[in-house]
Design goal:
The complex is a heterodimer of chains A (59) and B (135). Chain A is mainly alpha-helical and 59 residues long. Chain A has one domain. Chain A contains 2 helices and no strands. Chain B has one domain. Helix content of chain B is 60%, strand content 0%. The longest helix of chain B is centred in the last third of the chain and has 29 residues. The chains are: A mainly alpha (59), B mainly alpha (135). The interface between A and B is medium-sized, with 17 and 24 residues.
Chain lengths: 59, 135
């Protein structure tokens, strides 16, 4: 059984979802790549920010 | 009086045949819609992303929805069906957990559902390329 950490799961999810978003939502390869990177950074960044928010709320 | 020539229409590759073929092929097999349209690179990346996401979900002991007892299960089943033949093969081979008992398995279930939803987006993208809405 594959048992990644929560953060690894977020990274994997972000890579695959961003790849599909980039290819399907933009026209040219360069814009696809940039939009994919943008989506990936939003996935990972929002996960980190929300994690800190939940950590601070729980204290 | 000068006659201005019409702007040339962007040349689109001659497409013939059933217009919904890339949509259906892309739904059944991830990336196949783009392969039919000779978008090899895009098709390969889409296929790798969706198949890997589905496989990782199964490896995390995610659940393949089979019943439709309540609204959440119906939505999960619809998401799973988006994977096309991956879902059919997974069900036929008895892959996936019957019930979710671990946190990781819950994430795996989400991976499988999202893989199906992403496959639908990819299939619709192939249809848009086929109809000329997208290049």
């Amino acid at each position: 059984m594959f048992s990644p950490s929560h953060f690894t799961a977020v990274l994997l999810f972000g890579v695959f979802a961003s790849t599909v978003f980039g290819i399907t939502q933009r026209e040219t390869p360069q814009r696809m790549f940039r939009y994919g990177l943008y989506c990936f950074s939003l996935f990972v960044g929002s996960a980190i920010v929300l994690s800190w928010v939940m950590y601070l709320i729980a204290r | 009086m000068s006659s201005t020539p019409n702007k040339p229409v962007p040349s689109a590759p001659a497409q013939s045949g059933f217009v919904f073929l890339p949509l259906i092929a892309g739904w059944l097999i991830p990336g196949a819609g783009h392969f039919l349209l000779r978008k090899w690179g895009r098709g390969a990346l889409l296929a790798i992303s969706i198949i890997c996401m589905f496989a990782i979900g199964l490896a995390m002991q995610g659940k393949l929805y089979a019943n439709a007892h309540d609204i959440l299960e119906i939505l999960g089943l619809l998401g799973d069906l988006g994977s096309g033949l991956l879902y059919v093969v997974g069900r036929a081979m008895g892959l996936g957990a019957d019930s979710v008992q671990l946190t990781v398995a819950d994430w795996g279930t989400r991976f499988i559902v999202v893989a199906g939803l992403l496959n639908i987006i990819a299939a619709v993208d192939a249809h848009n390329i086929r109809t000329g809405r997208k290049s």
